[in-house]
Amino acid sequence: MDADVAIVGLGAAGSLSAWRLASRGAKVIGFERFKIGHDRGSSHGGTRAIRTAFGSLEYVRLLTQAFPLWRQLEAETRIQLLTLTRGLVIGALQGELVSGVLESARLNGLEHCLLDKVDMERLYPSHRLANGEVGVIEEQAGYLRPERAVGAATARAEELGARIMPMTMVKSVEAGHGYVTIQTDRGPITAAKALITAGPWTLKLLPDLGLPLAVERQVVAWFTVKDPAAFRPERFPIFIHELTGSRFRYGFPTTDGRSVKLAVHHEGTHADPDNIDRDVHEADLAPLRDFLSVHMSGVSDDVVRARVCMYTNAPESRFIVSLPEQLPGVTVLSACSGHGFSVAPVVGELVADLIIEGRRPPAIVRTI
Ligand SMILES: Cc1cc2nc3c(=O)[nH]c(=O)nc-3n(C[C@H](O)[C@H](O)[C@H](O)COP(=O)(O)OP(=O)(O)OC[C@H]3O[C@@H](n4cnc5c(N)ncnc54)[C@H](O)[C@@H]3O)c2cc1C
Fold it and tell me: Which residue among 48, 59, 216, 313 is best mutated to probe the pocket of ligand 1, counting the most ligand atoms within 8 A of its Cβ?
């Protein structure tokens, strides 16, 4: 047997799981078809939001546990990954976003503050609110550095004894006889268990499982700012703004001293990860330009760069951990639905509990 656990795909889910599994003594081998920290999947683009006041008690618990694990990875690798900026949500008081954040913050006793239009103009003048809109600041929020985090988790797993194989394509996963065989373009490997974290490629690798996943094309773009000091992380928290019709735009403080990253949440087209349109077109940027012309000050519509990324959506935006009967010993993890990055180390820990100790994850991480 070559390993205790073979991991297929080293994006956020695979690399953070590799770190948690290797930390707990498992002999891990990890495969990645591209180089570590590449920009062809779902774990690139410079920044990822991490918040706390989001959904139910169970989900808030996952998010709360994520912060110390990110700090632990920083301490073990001496690489800075998490910047706290506080989080700002903007929208109508009764809207899905603001009412959801207020409810989650109140129920879970999270520090937050409701700001009216006048407060917002004074404190966060880069945002322009429509009449009837409010802002909510939550204390425990910020951003992560995705490429760095994937690199750090993979390198740390390697230090802890994992064997990492970049530029290695897994062609199939076969199970039976008490072990799993991974066929790669460099030959076969056997392992006691396998963890499939292939993100948007999961359906292609395991087409027969009928997993309820759908891949969606997403575009992020960096727009130049007139006064970079006003958009520094200390002054400009990560934000999400709900527009009418449950449309969401979000953004980050500047990380390059000249631009801010803005994006649309969902509203993307269905995509095939092998044939996705990776070019960014005027039509992709139009909703962001419309947004900043109406709802922001000090951001020009000059695009410095833009990237295509993919969401792998599960029903109700859930996390899916699947133990397919057809593939004994194989765990499939879909940690995405557009919000899988921030909790990746916690989900990695839950997967380690499951693979090493047979302990089932909580209901929020649904097992199907
Ligand atoms: C634009 C955008 C913004 C986002 N914003 C946030 C956010 O603010 N906060 C948040 O928490 N989450 C956010 N997310 C979601 C989050 O980034 C994803 O949930 C997470 O990165 C998914 O990681 P993954 O490892 O499942 O997938 P991926 O990162 O796609 O990793 C899968 C890996 O598997 C490899 N692979 C696939 N098939 C094979 C094979 N056959 N052989 C070998 N290797 C293979 C791929 O090359 C890839 O590296 C965002 C996502 C996008 C696209």
Answer: 48
Q: Where in the chain is the domain with CATH 3.30.9.10?
A: 87-138+214-313
Q: Are residues 47 and 69 in contact, defined by beta-carbon separation less than 8 angstroms?
A: no
- pLDDT tens for residues 11-27? 999 999 999 999 999 99
Question: Cβ distance 299 to 345 under 8 Å?
Answer: no
Question: Is residue 222 a contact partner of residue 263, using CB atoms and an 8 Å limit?
Answer: no
DSSP secondary structure code for residue 342 in this structure: T
Among the listed residues 45, 356, 46, 10, the one whose alpha carbon sits nearest the alpha carbon of residue 157: 10
Collapsing DSSP states into helix, strand and coil, what is residue 189?
Answer: strand
Which atom of ligand 1 is least distant from the CA of 309? 53
Residue 367 pLDDT greater than 60, yes or no: no
- Predicted model pTM: 0.98
Residue 365 Cβ inside 6 Å of ligand 1? The answer reads no
Question: How far, in Å, from the CA of 43 to the mean position of ligand 1?
Answer: 4
Q: Does the C-beta of 309 come closer than 6 Å to ligand 1?
A: yes
Q: Decide if domain 87-138+214-313 falls under CATH 3.40.30.10.
A: no
Q: How far apart are CA 4 and CA 206, in angstroms?
A: 21
Mean of the pLDDT values across residues 76-90?
A: 98
Residue 256 binned pLDDT confidence (cut-offs 50, 70, 90): very high
CATH 3.90.1150.180 applies to domain 3-47+146-211+317-367: no
**Taking a C-beta distance cutoff of 8 angstroms, is the pair 197, 11 a contact?**
yes
Which part of the chain is CATH 3.50.50.60? 3-47+146-211+317-367
Place of tokens 């073990």: 76
CA angle 59, 64, 67 (to 5 degrees): 130
Q: Which residue has the tokens 């449309």?
A: 247
CA of residue 294 to ligand 1 center, whole Å: 31
pLDDT tens for 267-309 read: 999 999 999 999 999 999 999 999 999 999 999 999 999 999 9
Of 202, 193, 190, 210, the residue nearest 327 (C-alpha): 193
336 lines ligand 1 (CB under 6 A): yes
What percent of the chain has pLDDT above 90?
Answer: 91
